[in-house]
Input
Amino acid sequence: MQKTGTSKEMFIIKALEKILQERETKKPHHSQLRKACQDALDEAKKQCQANGEPAGDGSSVLPLPKQDSTGFRADKYLLPFELACQSKSAKIIVTALDCLQKLIAYGHLTGDVPDLTATTAGQRQIDRIVQTICGCFTGAHTDEEVQLQILKAILTVLTSQHVEVHEGTVLQAVRTCYNIYLASKNLVYQTTAKATLTQVVNVLFMRMESQAAGQAAADGAPDGQAESPPAPAEAPVGPPAGPELVDGVVRAEAAATETTASVSSEPRENGSERSSGPNTPKLNRRHSQGSEDASENDMMTAKFSHILQKDAFLVFRSLCKLSMKPLPDGTPDPKSHELRSKVLSLELLLSILQSPGPVFTTNDMFITAIKQYLCVALSKNGASSVPEVFQLSLAIFLALLANFKQHLKKQIEVFFKGIFLNLLETPSSSFEHKWMVIQVLTRICADAQSVVDIYVNYDCDFAAANIFERLVTDLSKMAQGRQIGQEQLGVTLTQERSIRLKALECLVGLLKCMVEWSRELYVNPHSQTNLDTDREAPDEPASTSLTTYGSQSSLPSSTPQQYESLKHKKEIWEQGIDMFNRKPKRGLAFLQEQGLLEATPDSVAAFFHDDHRLDRAVLGDYLGDPDQHNREVMYAYVDRLDFNDRDFVAALRLFLDGFRLPGEAQKIDRLMEKFASRYCECNPNQNIFASADTAYVLAYSIIMLTTDLHSAQVKHKMTKDQYIKMNRGINDSKDLPEDYLSQIYDEIAGNEIKMKVTASAKPGKQVAQSEKQRRLLFNLEMEQMSHAAKSLMEAASHVQAEFTCATHVEHVRPMFKLAWAPFLAAFSTGLQDCDDPLVDELCLDGIRCAIRIACIFQMKLERDAYVQALARFTLLTANAAITEMKAKNIDTIKTLISVAQTDGNYLGSSWLDILRCISQLELAQLIGTGVRPQHQHQHQQARGRAPDGHRFHFLESIDFTGTAERRMASVVESMGETNSQSVVVAVDRIFTGSIRLDGDAVVDFVDALCHVSRDELAQAQPRMFSLTKLVEISYYNMGRIRLQWSRIWKKLGEHFNRVGCNPMEEISFFAVDSLRQLSMKFIEKGELANFRFQKDFLRPFEYIMKSNRSPTIQDMVVRCVAQMVNSQARNIRSGWNNIFSVFHLAASGHDENVVELSFQTTGSIISTVFENHLAIVIDSFQDSIKCLSEFACNAQFPDTSMEAIRLIRSCARYVADSPHLFRDHNIEDKTIPEEDRVWVRAWFPIMFELSCIVNRCKLDVRTRALTVMFEIIKTYGMTYRQHWWKDLFQILFRIFDNMKLPEQQSEIFVHPDNQLDKAEWMTTTCNHALYAIIDVFTQYHDTLQPILLEPLYSQLHWCVRQDNEQLARSGTNCLENLVISNGVKFRPETWDQTCACMLDIFNSTIPHQLLTWRPGKPGDAAAEPKSPLEPPAEIMSRADSMHSINSIGSYSNDDKNRKIMKMKVHQDHDLFASLLIRCVVQLELIQTIDNIVFFPTTSRKEDAENLALAQAEALRQRLSDDAQQREDQGMYPYLSAGQLFQLIDCLMQSHRFAKRFNADHDQRNLLWRAGFKGNAKPNLLKQETQSLACALRILFRLYADEQRRPGWPQVEQRLIATCREALEYYLSLQSEAHRDAWVALLLLFLTRVQKMDDERFRAHASNYYPLLCEVMCFDLKPELRAVLRKFFLRIGPVFGITPPATT
Output
């Protein structure tokens, strides 16, 4: 310890000795210095002697102080050094300063004791030392060595760990360094001073942050939460720093400061750029309001948590004030103190702001200082015309934006709208300024958080400007060259290119930010493909993006939808403001209609106060308007102003700040009147104005004074005395104080009353005509911007506006929706106008990002616009020739492919444009390889435009003929790059990558590819590129889930349908073959039950088979399907439907090979699959039967028809063997009851198709089908349910439907062939079917009788009524067989039905027209009785009526055309044939009734017996009893008397009709002459006699039936009446032949009467006797005479005339 103290004393001794040795010290005026040095030297030597050390052996290097060293204090030696510093000798000062610096540096001089000589309380020795050091600098003439020593000493003091200086001392030290920098003319010392300042300032702020961190750690230590504080960044502790070391440190700091102090410099003429500005972080901001005049005392009295914070604050505030000092007018000298001072202060501020600590960014004092000082200073410097100042201001703004944006919302808005954007928009601004602004914007636009924050906080804020929108618009214009170029003087082409590039870079940066912000919504189907091996398109933002420190969202609960709604309202609001600025009332009405503004005066007045975008002149006119509502609004507006305790002129300024006074005096008068009233109301205690009138007149006079003093048009200005004189007597006839008026005059003269600067103030748009004029105009505009920005900044310094930190990804949607059009305009213009690779790269990069955003947010319009623009610039689908393709077009193609790969999931309908380009790219690649598209040109001329309006033009201008080889070579060269491996691979990846697209995207992709394929195939020279790709992607995507695949195949299937029907067979063939391959692969996957995917997949085969009539294609389709069946039958499920549909279509063809192959395959399916695996074809069973039916109906292949019917018979056997398969299949289907499934799915289709075969085919085939049908019914009918039979008989009755068609029945003229076909049909098929139906009914009578008897009777009735004798006979015969076979089972009601049926048949078949027909005038059919079930008669009646009219015409004019007569002949022929058939039917019906009642042949046997008996009687012979035959019973026992009487009535009606006809000889002659019934005269003798004979047999049977005894009287009465009628008619007959026809009838009558007992005989004989006596007058046949003889012989005994005969 002793040694250490001695060393220090020896160091001081040497310094003192050196001072004393100086020549200057020996001069008289330094006597005090010498004395002080000598005293100190003696003291030091004495101290050394006391310590036992020889004086003068000390080292010049001081040892470090020990903490326990107490023997030496350097403070007592301070006086000689202080006096040395005050001397004017540079050497003495240098020596003293050097000694002080070393003592302080090594901690031997702390100066922490109070300064006893100080006049200021609390001052310490170190403060006095610093004052001494700083006092050594006396101005620019100070020695440079002294200046260097001062800088060293100050740096040591402020960075030392051993001394502390604060507040004023710190400011003095900083000021001294500052002054040295400004005063020194040596660049080295300037740099040293600057470096010293930089290090000092940095140390001050680092100490502040370190102290706060340590304090925070100490406060949190007890809880175990605090971490160890970071080591304070202070000056290094070590050996004393010599001047050379200080120089090194300072120079390094200076170099770093110079490097970081610039934002960026303008590019040189050769296009190279200088270093781009500081690497500053990110952005944020917040409102403040304040001015330079704010109370600094308040700031100083604020409580800081530590003195270090106050030191930093004082330095920061001082630097801000230094930067605000104005520059001299004109162009400042770069070496001037003012400019250098401003630049240095800005550089120091920038160094502070570039890396702020937590205290600086959060402490309210610093935030307030930034608002009130720094932002105001920046508002002035940011509009500086000096590039260096402007550049530093921009760098500081970037730092503020990065670290303080949450506090500076309003200030940032002022910077953007008041400075940056104005500079971009004004044409007079210099290129350097624009370049620097756009450099800053590039940095801002590279940060996603900042970009989104700008939109959220300003564009979505009602009170803020649309910064994002305006920024994008301005950048777009610059990128298009619309704000540079001709309007911008002094700009070279290189500069223009550079700024356009930078604007494009900004736009691309904005889009990349939006992409980055929304990246979590993006799903990339696969990694991006690099198409260009030479360069990589950067997808990520630049690494130098700004860094955001955690700003808090002021609206954490706000959703993007709320912001979007707010933005929409803001747009409406701005629209209303724009309308107000043009027509105020309309604008207000619009805002009120939109619900944004109430109609009350208070609301409107508040709107006028709050919104500064209103045109102040328009607002003044509106407020001064005399309208009542306007006046109320004006009153409310003024009442919202607070004039309390304000000077009158200040109040008037406040009043006139908001609007411009209107020009009309009356309007001004109303405004001033209300102002005066409001002022007096707010200041009732003012003692100046006697009334409001005084204030009103004074306000008016101040306005006049302002105009007089500040208007350029007023030449002679008003003096103060004149003004005072003008205001005499205005205060209630008294004068206002002259001093008061004088003060008003002085204030107005010095400060004109102006409107405050508003947000809507913009620089002028004047265009300079020369470079000099531009500079002048630019300086003027910069000054205006500076004033406006300063005013706005001061106004904003006290406003607290919360800044919202955006977090939602959905913000990007409205941002892009707002800005997509300017983006597109910029990129389109760049691609169209420039061939610069950098421009092209940026534009393509921007378009790619824009497409990504539009895709992510599903913005269809915007996405389509960008994709179409990109496609257009490929020149592949444009009208330009392919020879115009350049490198940028190739890059565009690559970009388009890249978009397809990376954004495929979102492209939607935009796939169409992309795939069109890819389609044409393939053609371009062919050209690139030298392939020449043959005949392309001429075919296009012939065909023109494709059907859908899309046309491929890019080949049209190429001449491939004659001398075009050179052109072809150039085309090949220009297209060569499209054939590069990277492009080919990338295109292939689009299609192979389709497997990774999501479900919706792949459907859109397939749909677009189908559309492009249609375009390709519609060309004159069709291409199959896209069709081939469709097949490929079908293979790739076949593994998708069925739900997605079905949607894909819906598109693909429709396209294959079209392509498969293409008129060019090679295309159709390719489509069918592709379908075959796809189908084979698809069917291999199999299918579960109840699914229908195979059915959908195979449907194109069916469509092509149906629509394409080419035999080749049909053959191909059939072969493909046959191959599928042969190889994949085990996997086919729902596809069987399509297979049978294809074969069904083939079955009706005429090509033998197609039909044969189809039938062979179908037969194979029936014989193998149906036999062994019926369950898998249950769904298509109906289709298979339908298919077989179609084969059977193909008349060209009869063998196939017969075999098809056999296969149907086999199918019936399969159904009968496995009914459970049909019942249990698809049990989920509830539409069909379980018990009916076998019928609906199997039996019914079989029966129906067999009936179709019967109805459609020729005789042999339909006969075979009919036979098989009834075989199936008879064989398996026992399994049919009752209600199935109803459906079955409906099918069976369809066989007769061909003859029931009204158009066939109503035709007057029928072709002979048709008549023959109809006759054949009735004679064969209908006849066959009718008997078979009766057999089936009889076989299953118990089941069918309750439900089908009535329909069956109706069908028989229809058959009987047909104009076909065979069918009519069959009908009656079937009716007879039906009744005879089943009559014993009939119930009474059934017999009623039967009798009613026979009655209807009788009534409907009586040929009434035989009695009414006349030549040329048919009988009136309407008068004839006819059954309602008789359409032929009605039709004939209508025909007869029509021709009767023609006939009447012929009577009135004999020579009418003979054509009608010829028609009549044909008609009569048909009529006669029909009538003849009815006559036959009547006979058949009579016989049917007879057979039903008595059994067949019974009546004939009886007639034969009667005749034989009569003949024997005539010969007097006796027959044996064996010859007598007993009467059979028939159905008689089962018929009631009433039913029998109905039959008798029918018979008698028929008998009487026949009698009537036979008696009408004239009518018979007419018919005979007309050709009715051949050569003999027509008669109805059989009908006449047989009907009566049948009726008599029934009556006689009733008369003899013991069981019907109660009815005998009625029967007897009817029998007697009938017999009398018959005898009377017989007696009236004139013809012998006619009488002969009655012989059998008379024999029956007489024989039956003779068999009666005597009592009955007596009753009958008494009635017949006279008539029979008359009969005897005729020439009778022997048999009849014998019977009559016998009758008369019996009369005698019965009536007692003769005795009874003996036996």
